């Protein structure tokens, strides 16, 4: 049996190690890790302490990651306000389900993927609003911390609606329960979840049958921090998200 010189064997081993390192380096470069900052938000996704997030939006984000060539990492359960701050600082990469605003556009790339139901009208079950004209001179509660479209504000102004700015949804729903206001404009899923956890409110408050006309600006967006070290992936993420939208894999209200 032919014996190779010891130095030659060492040289071969070194070359093999270098080759492995190069291959692993290319593999890592081909799959950068992006963090999705999220909180528990059923029914889109559930995220309880000590558990992995699950739900239709998690499935969408994982598929988007595979098709875009990055590894998806989940943040710990984090409130939305904290996630926005981390996005602004470039300390996290992605958020999902955000409304567009000029301020947010300054530090995030916002990619639309689904119609939003962020301005759904809730009413007392005994006082439904049949159409746009019935809004005239009513009192509608809006939550201070939420973003409302110019279209909705214009409609309410045209109908001479008195807009009551309140601190949070809980306060708005309590006011509606006691008929101190006529309607609340709020996000469908979040408000329905609030009502589910409060049987007293759920017994008196319903989604109004008539809703204001749907508008283009009422869309949910995938957000990529402009300060992210992987922001250069935005083109392939955008292209792959468009494919998911075309395949109707991003619609969570149907």
TrEMBL record:
Lineage top rank: taxon: Bacteria
InterPro entries reported for this sequence: Solute-binding_3/MltF_N (IPR001638)
Solute-binding protein family 3/N-terminal domain ranges (all copies): 39-129
Pfam families according to UniProt: SBP_bac_3 (PF00497)
Signal peptide: 1-29
Family listed: Belongs to the bacterial solute-binding protein 3 family.
Protein name (record): Transporter substrate-binding domain-containing protein
Organism: Rheinheimera riviphila
